[in-house]
User: Which sequence fits this backbone?
């Protein structure tokens, strides 16, 4: 297993964002995470990335206990993430934004940060945008940059937080192709997404959160048809037709 959460809990006052959450992710997996707004999905990523400390429980990554490590250390070990609200350095160019990730990469091996950035920009279809200011990019290109910045750290696991939201169908299709390629080239993908049909075209496993609790975990179609999940989503999801 590359990542294991053992009985992880965390609350903000009366709001429980993680309630005794346990699961493991294997070396070659692509896992989807769904759940209603406020279910604790982003908080779960914050706990995995080291942006948020659990009040109890532990997080193991690549064979070691990382519970006490901060986000920078975890990034060095191979955990990368994108943010639900992209936060590029808007005054830097696309290339400079990706170089920031590449410079802090632990796993660049024999590649210079410049060569690593070149490679990532090409993979993410941002080659021709490299000298534009990040603040001037279209939504799709900002999503690609969010991915590129994360990939430039050479992660073993990439956490994607609602990266397809707001895109047109055609743009979403392109982004899905890129995420499939990232997974196919050996990076474990854990993806939070409300656009269920996009998610299901990538993941082989689906985890459902509700009020901080892991309520389902398994093969996507079985999970979508489970009574607990149908009850949670009944009449409240824009993508509810995907449950049919
Ligand atoms: N730093 C914080 N301080 C206080 N409350 C927080 C904090 N972070 C999250 N919360 C609360 O915890 C709950 C879960 O938030 P979280 O962002 O994890 O949900 P989510 O499942 O990602 O929702 P969404 O689908 O809207 O992105 C929400 O009620 C949120 O307001
Ligand atoms: Mg969220």
Assistant:
């Amino acid at each position: 297993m590359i990542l294991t959460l053992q009985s992880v809990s965390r609350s903000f006052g009366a709001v429980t964002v993680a309630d005794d959450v346990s699961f493991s992710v294997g070396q070659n997996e692509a896992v989807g995470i769904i759940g209603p707004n406020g279910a604790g999905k982003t908080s779960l990523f914050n706990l995995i990335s080291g942006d948020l400390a659990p009040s109890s429980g532990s997080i193991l990554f690549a064979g070691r206990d990382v519970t006490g490590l901060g986000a920078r250390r975890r990034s060095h070990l191979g955990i990368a993430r994108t943010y639900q609200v992209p936060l590029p350095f808007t005054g830097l160019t696309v290339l400079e934004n990706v170089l920031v990730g590449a410079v802090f990469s632990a796993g660049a091996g024999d590649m210079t940060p410049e060569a690593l950035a070149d490679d990532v920009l090409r993979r993410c279809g941002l080659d021709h945008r490299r000298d534009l200011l990040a603040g001037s990019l279209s939504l799709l290109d900002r999503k690609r940059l969010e991915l590129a910045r994360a990939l430039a750290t050479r992660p073993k696991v990439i956490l994607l937080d609602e990266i397809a939201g707001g895109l047109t169908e055609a743009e979403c299709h392109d982004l899905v192709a890129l995420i499939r390629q990232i997974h196919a080239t050996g990076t474990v993908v854990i993806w939070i997404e409300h656009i269920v049909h996009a998610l299901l075209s990538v993941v082989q496993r689906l985890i459902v959160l509700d009020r901080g609790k892991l309520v389902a975990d398994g093969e996507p179609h079985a999970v979508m048809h489970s009574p607990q999940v149908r009850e949670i989503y009944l009449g409240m999801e824009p993508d509810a037709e995907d449950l049919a």
Notes: The domain at 3-78+155-243 is CATH 3.40.50.300 (Rossmann fold). The mean pLDDT is 92. The CA atoms of residues 17 and 40 lie 5 Å apart. The chain is about 35% helix and 25% strand.
